[in-house]
Structures are given as C-alpha cells and as structure tokens.
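Wait, mind explaining this?

_____
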Amino acid sequence: MNKRNEYGKRAPVEERCLDHVRRALGGLAVTYEPAAPEGRVPYDGVLEVRTQPPTRLRTLVRPRKLDRALIQHLLALTAVARKKAAAPAAILCRYVPEDAARLLREEGIAFADTLGNLHLQAPGVRLWEVGNRPPREREGEPRRLTDPAALRLINAYINEPGTLGQPYRKTAQDYGIGLATITAVKGALLREGFMNRTGRREWKLARIPELVERFVQGYAAKLRPRLFIGRFRAREKNLDDALAALARIAQDRGIDWAVTGEYAAKEMTRYLRPGHLTVFTDDRWEQAHDQAGLAKDREGPVTLLRIFPGAKGKPGNKWPMANRLMVYAELIHEADGRTIETGRMLLEKYLKDLERVHG
C-alpha cells in the first residue's frame, strides 16, 4: 500500500492495484496500457490478462474511494458506453468498500483497489476478495474542490461559461460566494488541469467529463447535506397533485423554487415514471408547510432542498426547473434500478452539449 517509485514518490493508483492483481494471478502476465479517451467517455487505458484467449478490459482509473454516488455515475457512464459498444469492463481505484464491490460484481465490472480488494472473471480465472479496509478514512481529493461553496462555483462555471472571465466581485455578488473562495477554487482548478488560461481574463474549462464526475460525487457528500431542508409526506396521495399544490402556493407567495431529481428528469427525457418528488425552494417554505399539506416524515416521498444562485436552469413547460447538472446529480443520489437508464440519457446529451458550449 505504501509502494514508492524510483524517485521516492508514491506509485500511481493503477500500479499499486495491478501489483495486487499480479500476486493473485500468480504466473499469468498482466499489463496495463494507458489510452487516449474514446469520444466523450474518459477511458484511461486497457488492462490485459494473458489468459487463453487474452482478456482485454477497457479500464477507468480513479484515485478516490468509490462511494455510492461515484459508482452510480460510473454505471451511467457504462450505460452510455454500452450504447456505443465500448463499455468499460474494469475499474482501478484507491478503495472499494464491500457494498460497492458487490454492486460492481452484479454489474459485471471487474475492479481492483490499492488495498487488495479485487474481482475478475476471465477464462480460467475467478478472483473475488473483499473486506480489506484502510486504517482510517482520508479525504480522497483536494478539499478545496469539495467544499460546498466551491461546488456551487463549479456548477456556475460549467453551466454559465461567461462567469469564467467576469470580475471576481461580480461573481461574488451573483452567486453569493466569497472572493477568497473564488481565488482559491480557480487556483485549484488550474493546478489540477480543469482550467486553462487562454488570454487576459480569458479562461476555458478542460477535462469537463471528469469535472462533472467530481461535482456529482461532491454534491452527494458535501453540498446536498448543506442544502437539505427535510423529507415530507404530502396530503395528496398522487405526487402529481402534490406538485400542483406546491406550484400554486409558490406562485401565490412569490417563493423561488425549481423542480429537480426524478420529476425534472421526466420532463427532460419523457422516459421516467417518478416515485419521488424533489424541489429546490427558499426559506419561506418554513411558513408554508401546513398550507401545502406537507408533514415531516423521514421516509416521505417529498424532499425539499434550499435553493441557491445558479441552481435553476431553463424553465420547463410546466414548472421552473433546476439546471441539468443539478438534476443529474440528484438523480444519481436517488439512483436505483429505475433511474440509471434515465441518468444515461441525461448524461449523454449533457456531455455532448457541454463539449459544444465549452469548445
């Protein structure tokens, strides 16, 4: 786990993972060849095991723990790739918890981590080892880019490219983010290769699919808990009726709100039958719960989240809507078997549009 390269630096994640695979396979040769990304899905390389015939696996490398949000996002990426007949078949990462390992095995995805947890099925090979844990949980990526304020700024940069070059004071005023945070986040994005300077006060995002991935993971772990108001049950048994009641009250009281999650995904794709209603709203809902027929319930099908500048996107045909990044992140947070295909549909078009907008 503490392997170093010839210069005394920590060996790359993929090298440490492959050491465990080689030890588990004994005499079988294992190679890993880095590869350029294929299309809009960021593959990192090809893992080859010299079975008969050879087993070649398109591989994703992630230097972080595979938490639930990251796994669901990678499954959506896999679904996009399967449509193109180029699905990833293996993941190398820092740490795969046991529940995540079982989910990956069910999905037919091989994995190995830096602790020796691994799963691989190939001709004559059946590997399955789980339960190895790190001595303590450590932050898996630079803290600055996972702070709630940083995530709100990244959301703005991804969805409103014009904010990249505007004066810091205007960004601070428009999005309610401190000047020091803006300076620090831009510096972190530059250092990690997510942003390039193209001229005086001109900036351009890079590696956008990976930045979206970082956001989705940070949304579930850091931003959403900060935005969470509560879960509720509605007086109306039909969620369509509950949403209509919320819309009427929001209009009457001038409440700022937007639909996200499953209902917004349904509006965007015409595909999903929602089982949960999630709404961004401002603090005035605290005085409107009773009128809206909402009662607090930890298992209720209605979730209210605190809205923030930049969360809203283009208005829908029926209601104000969150932007696609927020809808996708919430959909991944809620993810189950019903929503992965919808997530794939959203993600595929969203990444394509971001590629066009950001050039």
